[in-house]
Amino acid sequence: MIDNLYNYYVVNRLHRNVRISVKEVNTEYSTLNLSPEERMTRRFEYLTSLETPRIHPLEQIVLTRNVSNLPDVLTEDEWAEIKKDHYIHELGYVSNLSPDYASTISLGLLKVRETADAYQVRMIDAIINLCDRYKAEAEKMGRADVVEVLSQVPRYPARNFREALQFFRILHFSLWLEGDYHNTVGRFDQYMYPYFQKDMEAGVYTRETALELVEDFFLSFNKDSDLYVGVQQGDNGQSMVLGGIDKDGNDCFNLLSELCLEASRNLKLIDPKINLRVSKKTPLSIYEKGTELTKVGLGFPQYSNDDVVIKGLERLGYSYEDAVNYVVAACWEFIIPGVGNDIANIGAVNFPAVVDKVIRENINKDFDTLIANLKKEITAECDKICESIHDVWFVPSPFMDLLRGGKKYNNFGIHGSGIASAADALAAVKKFVYDEQKITPERLIQALDENFTNDPELLHLLRFEAPKMGTGSDEADEMGGLLLSSFADALDGKTNCMGGVWRAGTGTAMYYLWHARDLGATADGRLAGEPFGTNFSPSLFAQIPGPVTDIESFTANDLTRNMNGGPLTLEFSASIFQSQESIQKVATLIKYFVERGGHQLQLNAVNLDAMKEAQANPELYRQLVVRIWGWSAYFVELDKDFQDHVMARQEYSV
User: What are the angstrom distances between the C-alpha of 633 and each of 16, 626, 651?
Assistant: First the structure.
């Protein structure tokens, strides 16, 4: 059954043949002088009215979009007017939040409707109307099972696991249709477990039939995911968190968590994106289960260390009760479900550019002065970002507000791109210019200005013989720690325009390409325009002895003050996962990372030959999946810059 659904939705994509494109509405709304809330509500009613119910004869979880576009509710002139007085983040629509699905699933929309405002009432009515049309279609098809489910949800509370899954699909579908994006899944195995456990104990499902239902549910994330495009196809934010501890410190990994890992492994789909919360209490067996999923090449799961993350979030002012319930945003930023209103990716510091500027201006001064001025420059760069962001404005999202318990946290996160490249540049300058005096300041600056064209010997020295993070170099790791602490210091005590704090992070998002494109050669031996490493990872040309030194380097410093997220990424040759011994070795490495105090880790199983073939013959590799930064994608759907970066990353063996 799952194979038939997989072929229909994923391989042949037959459901896309009936999609429709809708007209623009912003000019009409502007002429009528409608409020933003009215525009969002009216558009939602319009789009739901155009959705035509279609149910595959074998699927258990229904709702598939056929409206392919979301017309803007504001005209270009209106946006321009708003931008005169406000900061607009990304598209200006709400994103990167984790709603409180659990409460609504347990109450039903009719109960929620009792305390909703007028706009939310209209949206609820539109959703119920759409689901009634799906129910009518199911009746026509003789699908009594679907009729039974839709007779209960979303009007009334879910009574069992299937109804809870269907209710989630309805809510998730509605958020996308409202225009919110990067809507995350949250701690799925926690809020769904009571329904699952009840049905399992009652004998409704066997392990096999429960897995089949979870796989059906996972397929629902992929029916419409091509319509939810971020920087690249696949960047859609459908992140699911599994495991982790509860407020009493108990490990929460359960049978549903295990089935989710297994479903993802079986389907090999880019959604939902699996994240595992772990800690020093996590047994090796769970890391082995995670590694079995890594083996298939999706770039899942991503690991977050509760021991470090919870402490770091508390340090930022999150209550323990909220911090212990953390999830990840679209990629890896730490957010709180239900009550979080954080903007976790509002800016980024280009660390290699900052370090390059300071080196050029201070290379003839002593090293202590250079470092003192570096700290000032990092502070100045952070100040510039903070001061540029004021009066943040979003298009209202009545339905998203309905699924939230308030806006308790309004913190802003700043990425730190190229930390390893910047640390390597500092370490190289300290070693060769200051300590050994092997390079004169004049020679270094001239070589950088000329992109090393006339000094290949210096390029080789800086690129391959200088200290590098990830290689076991204490000098480079020390410089990395200096950058991390200076970053946190620069944001410490600052309040943003929404009354929240600023969070320093180790992630890069797309800036590992964007920041690098505009930067000339740097003192780590990087050539002009050459990309940085992704997130909190080594430079692409660092000659890493193996994954152990990489882990030791990127866990050498206290990360609790850099709690916006951003993982160390390790690439493993896909061929190493063939034996159980190798699976255990990789699992042991992950456990070692956690025990050393790493905050976030992401592993890939890569096949360089397959990627080369896919570039040459994309039509033969439509299902080849790779990890980009905080998300996975089909390799052939990526721009070549992203493809080339994945192919350039170092592969490890164990």
Answer: 19, 6, 19
* 100 vs 338: CA distance, rounded Å: 4
Buried b (16+ CB within 10 A) or exposed e, 86-123: ebebeebbbbbbbbbbbebbeebbeebbeebeebbbbb
Tens-place pLDDT, residues 379-423 = 999 999 999 999 999 999 999 999 998 899 999 999 999 999 999
For residue 309, what are its two tokens?
């993350």
What is the enclosing helix (H) or strand (E) of 605? strand 600-606
Nearest to 20 by CA among 46, 40, 56, 59: 46
Residue of 611, 603, 609, 615 whose CA lies nearest to 653: 603
* Residue spans of alpha helices (H) in 227-323: 255-267, 284-294, 306-315, 320-323
Instruction: Give me 517's structure tokens.
Output: 């494109």
Query: What is residue 614's three-state secondary structure?
Result: helix
- Amino acid at residue number 639: D
Tokens of 161: 């696991």
- Please write down the long-range contacts of 364-370, taking CB distance under 8 Å and 24 or more positions apart: 364/441, 366/434, 367/429, 367/430, 367/434, 370/429
For 129-135, what is the mean pLDDT? 98
| C-alpha closest to that of 329 among 339, 341, 315, 344 | 344
Q: Counting Cβ atoms within 10 Å, is residue 490 exposed (0-12), middle (13-18) or buried (19+)?
A: buried
Task: Please state, in angstroms and as integers, the Cα–Cα distance from residue 232 to each residue in 117, 213, 226, 254, following that order.
Answer: 36, 30, 10, 33
Summarize the confidence of residues 617-645 as an average pLDDT: 71
Q: What are 569's strand-pairing partners?
A: 602
Residue 238, CA distances (Å) to 183, 330, 465, 563, 633 in order: 6, 6, 42, 21, 12
The pTM of this model reads 0.93
Taking the C-alpha atoms of residue 479 and residue 430, their distance in angstroms, rounded to an integer, is: 10
Give me the residue label for tokens 């609820």.
Answer: 124
| Residue 357 CA, distance from chain mean position | 31
The model's pLDDT over 53-91, given as tens digits with 9 standing for 90+, comes to: 999 999 999 999 999 999 999 999 999 999 999 999 999
Can you name the residues that pair with 20 across neighbouring β-strands? 67
Q: What is the pLDDT of residue 237?
A: 83
| CB of 295 closer than 8 Å to CB of 573 | no
